[in-house]
């Protein structure tokens, strides 16, 4: 795989989120450079960025490794999202552009249509685009960046059950856009807070592959002892 040097950070982050680079696993510059078809320089820069974001840690005698967040750290992410998503929507109500509104309304129309058809794969992608656009509409680089990192980390640490009622979820998205379009920051904040609380209930903490393997091996060993 060859990718542009400036996209190395995104590619490594995406592979961490997808579990291709397992938690606790070493991230060797030479191996990563070969995998992504670049020199070691952009890899080294990417690892520094990912360490600042919390996806990578540097360990003595091991070098760069994928971070291993605790359950408490994972829970903190959901709590942070409960605070920041409504703030972002409130700011978007004051700072959004017509271009943002056009994209948000288009996504809501598509989402409502797909929800009626029951296409869950499309809905997941559309939901991600919706929240990404809403974050961009807040008019704050710092807040947009924080929300983006939260989405990446939550996707890394949690699996998400499909919404019990996709049409209801997209009706909530529509209500958020209506408030943003009217410039009603308090309404946007309140509707987004309710939407985020409901979405949080569908999150299930992922079990790292290494932990699953160790538990499976332990079960086998224990069964052997009992026999």
Molecular structure report:
The chain is mainly α and 227 residues long. It folds into 2 domains: 5-66, Orthogonal Bundle (Arc Repressor Mutant, subunit A), CATH 1.10.10; 71-205, GntR ligand-binding domain-like (Four Helix Bundle (Hemerythrin (Met), subunit A), Up-down Bundle), CATH 1.20.120. Helices cover 71% and strands 6% of the residues. The strands form 2 sheets. The protein has a two-stranded antiparallel sheet with strand order 1-2. The longest helix is centred in the middle third of the chain and has 25 residues, at 71-95. The radius of gyration is 20 Å and the shape is elongated. The chain starts with 7 loop residues before the first helix and ends with a helix. This is GntR family transcriptional regulator. GO terms for molecular function: DNA binding; DNA-binding transcription factor activity. Keywords: DNA-binding, Transcription, Transcription regulation. InterPro entries: GntR_C (IPR011711), TF_FadR/GntR_C (IPR008920), Tscrpt_reg_HTH_GntR (IPR000524), WH-like_DNA-bd_sf (IPR036388), WH_DNA-bd_sf (IPR036390).
